[in-house]
Amino acid sequence: MKKGNHDIRDVVYIHLHEKERFVLSYGIEFYEFYHFLAQSISSILLLKHQFDDGELHTHTMFDYVPEQKLAKLAKEDVYGYGDFAWIDFEETEALDVLHGQTIAELLFLAHKRDHLKAPFYQHLNNQFVYLAHDDGWFNKTYYKNLPMFYSFFGEVISQKLNRLKADKTLFGVKKKRIFTPLSQQGVLLLKEMMKEGMVLSIRKASQNRMRIEIPIWVIGDFANMDDMYEEYEKRSKQGNVDGKLVYDKRTKEWEVIIN
């Protein structure tokens, strides 16, 4: 999936705002989010979308997607929606008693992609708020429990490798290698880099028979992902890296190297 000439699948930017429990990202898309976190999502209230199969909730006047339809939404071209924003909830009955103030805060969230107060609501018992523009290009995701993000990040990096790398069998048929997820402990070693604005490039990974090395750069805080990508391209051409993710093909273990 691309925007302009940029392939957003194999370059990932993360800027972690730990205190406010949100992550700005580039390169991670809704179908990946849903694939790894589906068990944590009951239903979602759509704040901005173009999904044709949502159900209208007449009290809030938002469409919602019940759990049994989430897989269908995950197969949609969400990138093509432009703006895509939602918050999860547990029980439809909870929507019936949402106050006007809460509905106003949700409208503000979707419109400004920012919060008036911490966007975790007792009535909804939501775990996430997902605010995207050109999904995968600019995403702002709130996590009630940040360890969920650390686990998800480790899974999604290994899955991107699974999709991009292939080995040949004895019969010459390409067979995808299954890469072990990066552990939560490994992701936590990257936390300080994430807090400063970190980008890694699976596209520029190097490999030999024994290992794969994914380069990492700390490039700073960006809300405009065109500017972020420009800085990434500049830094990646300079050669010096701030860290690496190293995967040992023999032991199937990751090592985090910070320079």
Description:
Helix content is 29%, strand content 31%. By secondary structure, it is of the alpha+beta class. It folds into 2 domains: 29-135, no CATH class; 148-258, no CATH class. Helix 1 (30-37) packs across helix 5. The longest helix has 19 residues, at 146-164.
Report the strand count. Answer: 17
The main β sheet shows up as:
13 strands, antiparallel
Number of domains: 2
Q: Strand portion, in percent?
A: 25-35%
What's the helix and strand layout?
Elements: E1 2-3, E2 6-7, E3 11-17, E4 22-26, H1 30-37, E5 43-48, E6 55-57, E7 62-65, H2 70-74, E8 83-89, H3 92-96, H4 100-112, E9 128-133, E10 138-143, H5 146-164, E11 166-168, E12 174-176, H6 184-188, H7 191-196, E13 198-201, E14 206-207, E15 211-218, H8 225-238, E16 243-248, E17 253-258
Helix pairs in contact: 1-5
Keywords:
259 residues, alpha+beta, 2 domains, 8 helices, 17 strands, elongated
Brief digest:
The chain has 259 residues and is an alpha+beta fold. The protein has helices at residues 30-37, 70-74, 92-96, 100-112, 146-164, 184-188, 191-196, 225-238, and strands at 2-3, 6-7, 11-17, 22-26, 43-48, 55-57, 62-65, 83-89, 128-133, 138-143, 166-168, 174-176, 198-201, 206-207, 211-218, 243-248, 253-258.
